[in-house]
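Researcher: Go.
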Amino acid sequence: MVVIVNGVVIETNAIELEAQRQGQDADDAARRTLAVRELLLQRARELGLTRCGDGRQSVDSLIEKVLDLEVSTPAPTETECRRHYEMHPEKYTSGELVEARHILIAVTPGAQV
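Model: Structure:
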């Protein structure tokens, strides 16, 4: 199945490579991932952003720049924070803490001290 995003063809070998990373339902996930990636790169070009050199790191950096510019994460309210805290107590608690003043070790005859 050919994937075309705004006139840009996603190559079959790119889909196969992404499918290996995805695991279960890999083909659909790979197509979706690569389509979103292409949309983000097209938006980067619209914003006049360019990447330096070749390679995955520079593409990822470019996508990160687009997301930084285009996506705003709203600050949670006090109520939302409290609800999250109350729904996930295991994330915010630890086991019992103890403090040892002395540690005694039994030494048996013939043991090196």
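Model: The first helix runs from residue 12 to 22.
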